[in-house]
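Comment thread on ticket #2218

A.B. wrote:
> Attaching the input chain for the structure job we discussed in standup.
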Amino acid sequence: MKIENIIAAGVAQAVKELYGLDINAESIQIQQTKKEFEGHLTVVVFPFLKASHKGPEQTAVEIGQWLENNVEAIDKFNAVKGFLNLSVSAKFWLDMLHHIEEDDNYGITPVSDDAELVMVEYSSPNTNKPLHLGHVRNNLLGFSLAQILKANGKRVIKTNIVNDRGIHICKSMLAWQKWGNGITPDKAGKKGDHLIGDFYVEFDKHYKDELKQLKAQGMSDEEAEASSTLMAEARELLRRWEKGDEEVRSLWKMMNEWVYDGFDKTYARLGVDFDKIYYESDTYLEGKDLVLSGLDKGIMYRKDDNSVWADLTPDGLDHKLLLRSDGTSVYMTQDIGTAKLRYQDYPIDKMIYVVGNEQNYHFQVLSLLLDKLGFKWGKDLTHFSYGMVELPNGKMKSREGTVVDADDLMDTMISNAREASADRFKDMEPAEVDEISRMVGLGALKYFLLKVDPRKNILFNPEESIDFNGNTGPFLQYTYARIRSVCRRAEEELNSCSYAEAVPNEKEQVLIQKLADFPAAVADAGRNYSPALIANYCYDLAKEYNQFYHDYSILKEEDAATRCLRLNLSKVTARTLKAGVALLGMEMPERM
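C.D. wrote:
> Ran it. Output below, let me know if you need it in another format.
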């Protein structure tokens, strides 16, 4: 049983016996004791003063005395005004360590067949460009959130919606037709997503040149855009695609397959995956039909130019376009159709969209429209809104080719890790150097992007992320590798020794307490949809272990019971660190 629960139950009983007050144990405020005071946990006694009719300190002393006399786990106490600081007995901590050690999945709740079913959507790429740094944060957040929800006992479906149709796709297609000369990924020696991204940039370059020439003839910005033959050709491609033109569809399928192959390689390298992938080309017609049915029911309205809109002003929003005047769909139409298909496919209890905060308004509208269209689950969808990844020179612009490409970024991180770890690799085979460099480089990237509150923007700094001494992934990985080295050197003793007679010192007790906090960290991360809570728990645990490692000998400790205690503390710390970072999608090298 958790020590917090034992204390809460004891305080509830104490307050009832001392002051005749019945209270719910769950309402009792318990927090970790501040480092400047003696104790492990602190109870806030101010809520009991009305019942005790005494001052805060006297009330704290009376409750503390009761706990010391009646709760075996409490060794001693001290009172500081209205704060009761409790020291937990050494025996309790030994029993707790044994309990954690015996449970290989400590802190992880098994998933039952009837558990809540949660669908998490993340990634959502366009098939006109490769994945970039922004997608990396999205994928890492989505995958980590899915892992955390699973660890909280939820059934989870990881899903992706690929935006494989629309004007942006047609721009790449048109550019390939005009300037591609039949090039393929194999001929170019490039991943397919990179090749198609090049043509998206190529279109934008020619489009800008065309606008410049038109404006030089005296046209305004609006007139030039309206007169662009390139954009007109792209729109015509889209119209032909929506009508099912065989030639356009064939080109579209070929180029999309190139992109999917490239995406798959990037996802595999990044360590993320999906249980189900939806494609906008399959879902937008569902959305279009729903919008037209909403039009028939008077939920939507049609303008004179034939476009279809929803009036959301009674809900405090504005008017929202759902079908353009030429009948083509917008993103909102697609999302309505996708939502319907998902709820047809799965008995979802909770739908979570992992999408940047630039789309907050979009998901407000989507929720309202689904509700108006009669889908009761519309109001219950969750937008996991996160901040953008920023660069020292500003935002990324994919149409101008100024993005931080995901593949290039991973290459750089792995190269940086290899360079930073060169001294550690002297006695290793090349294959092991490659594998550890990969783990450390990608671990540094993942941890840097996940350790921050998801709602905050991040200024990405690759150099800062690979530091073996700071709040970084490599620091956690190095701590793990150090512990595993200790355990390997004492493997035989570790498998047969006993620490039943050991008396854990204060530092060892604090470390056991931190290990015991792992289930609460997992639960908090699941409740708050925050991988950052796991990252920071792991950092605190690694920091606590390193202080212990610095202050006390392990393998050279002469007392057998104490040595066994420290070896088992080390083993359980390594296991917990590995389980924690796995929720972030990170891997741990066995040696560094």
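A.B. wrote:
> Thanks. Noting for the ticket: Confidence is low (pLDDT under 50) at residues 394-401.
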